[in-house]
Write a structure and sequence with these properties.
Strand order of the largest sheet: 1-30-29-28
Structural class: mainly beta
Distance between the termini: 38 Å
Strand content: 35-45%
């Protein structure tokens, strides 16, 4: 198996710019490797970005857990030309500390969660106003129960930003109906929104909730420790049921994988024991063959985290136990690559940009580790269903080519590249938004003018916002 790696250097950047401007380019066959930093956050415009989502026009949206006007987080947009725009500054009363990405509604509205704040006002003074003092609550308070009744006003919110920029709060959590919503949301075709809270509910071990189109909140299930605790992101399975992970709880208190019907019936599919993984934190992905894949932040052979596979018959297998050198403590979900080559081509004179996604067989996934790797601050890796792992990027912090530290998310873009965020690193050590280039400059096939089997895309040059 072989993975194509790419490096961005000055000649290639010049070629990218020329291509974007429609200028004549010479034949070029350079391979590129590494990440482009699209945004370096500086605290004032946000800090500790969590994830991004792309709309049909190619604009990206995301949240920062800290920074902004009140040092309680922001919602931002990255326009196609690279401009960074702050759409919302959280102030406590309208929420605080969004630690999950956004979803995009069919009308163009953005939906998200804040893990603290809401009714009761902000918690200014819990963190210093200096962005350098900002440390994620998630890192300091490992047990989400510590967030409930800890003196931090408000137990979190669900919010909406309309296409015209109007901000509204759909739900104020109060503990009884859930607390500390830290994971992303899911919307079904009927406009119902589903999500989870890390704490709150009858046993203060978290809930899964539903918000109807008329903004009515209902609790589908309450966790009690035995059936799991601190649930995370949800995914809609091919069978129409919800699937997810609980970070803790179960018979060994190391977390579970569960299935949940819309009627509220909960089934525990896997109980982690430490040896087979511990503390799954980022939800699941269902592959084309129906199997589920995910990661645990701890456990495995070296207690540094695992990548696991769950088959439709309930069998769990560990694909990789991280050892530190190849990364450690993965805390972002996986992205599945389709089998074989896929092409996204744009022709400019005698030059094509071809997206070379994969050249291997079987199910293949890409993910991040929040630490470990060559520099100890995180990696991007590729892993197949045979357990073969390749490190694509080792982040370098605030120096070198691969800026950023402690990556926490990864998504596939419409252009065939991968996009993600790092909690720290970048010029000001406040986090970055990056793009992993999977572009190979190739000459057109002889006699071809459109690129065989390809569809045209509008390739955008890298832009650094600072």
């Amino acid at each position: 198996m072989k993975i194509i790696r790419f490096k961005i250097n000055a000649p290639v950047r010049l070629s990218l710019t020329c291509l974007a401007l429609g200028l004549v380019l010479p034949a070029y066959g350079k391979v590129m490797e590494g990440v482009d930093t699209l945004v370096n956050f500086n605290g004032k415009d946000g800090a500790q970005p969590q994830s991004v989502i792309e709309d049909s026009a190619g604009n990206f949206y995301g949240t920062t857990a800290k920074g902004g006007t009140y040092n309680m987080g922001t919602v931002y947009e990255i326009k196609q030309d690279g401009e960074l725009v702050t759409l919302q500054n959280f102030n406590g009363a309208n929420g605080a500390d969004p630690e999950a990405g956004l979803i995009l509604g069919p009308d163009g509205s953005l939906y998200g969660t804040t893990r603290a704040g809401g009714i009761g006002g902000g918690h200014a003074g819990v963190r210093g106003s200096d962005p350098k003092e900002m440390v994620s609550d998630a890192k300091e308070m490992r047990d989400p129960k510590d967030m409930v009744g800890s003196g931090l006003p408000g137990d979190g919110t669900v919010f909406k930003i309309a296409p015209n920029g109007a901000f509204s709060t759909l739900v104020f959590f109060n503990g009884a109906n859930g607390a500390v919503p830290e994971s992303g949301l899911l919307m079904d075709p009927n406009g119902n929104i589903y999500g989870s809270t890390l704490a709150g509910g009858a046993d203060n071990d978290g809930t899964v909730f539903k918000i109807s189109p008329n903004d009515t909140l209902s609790t589908l299930v309450t966790f009690n420790g035995t059936n799991g605790a601190n649930p995370g992101s949800l995914v809609l399975g091919d069978d129409g049921n919800l699937y997810g992970t609980a970070n803790k709880g179960g018979t060994s208190a190391d977390g579970t994988v569960f299935e949940l019907t819309f009627a509220g019936k909960l089934t525990t599919l896997v109980t982690f024991t430490g040896a087979n993984g511990a503390f799954p934190v980022s939800g699941l992905i269902q592959s084309q063959d129906g199997d589920f894949y995910g990661v645990t932040s701890d456990g495995g052979a070296n207690n540094l985290g695992t990548v696991f596979k769950l088959t439709s018959d309930g069998s769990l297998s560990t694909l990789i136990s991280f050892n530190g050198t190849d990364g450690s403590h993965p805390d972002s979900g996986l992205v599945e690559w389709n089998n074989g080559y896929f092409y996204m081509v744009r022709q400019s004179q005698n030059l094509y940009v071809r997206s070379a996604g994969v050249q291997w067989s079987g199910d293949t996934f890409v993910g991040t580790t929040s630490s470990g790797g060559a520099n100890g601050i995180g990696t991007i890796y590729r892993i197949g269903d045979d357990g073969d792992l390749v490190t694509i990027v080792a982040f370098t912090g605030n120096r070198g080519v691969d800026l950023g530290a402690n990556p926490n998310s990864l998504v596939a873009g419409q252009d065939g590249n991968l996009y993600g965020t790092t909690t720290n690193g970048g010029y000001d050590n406040e986090g970055t938004v990056f793009r992993l280039q999977l572009q190979l400059w190739l000459l057109p096939v002889s006699g071809s003018t459109t690129g065989e089997g390809a569809s045209s895309i509008d390739f955008r040059p890298p832009v650094i916002s600072h």
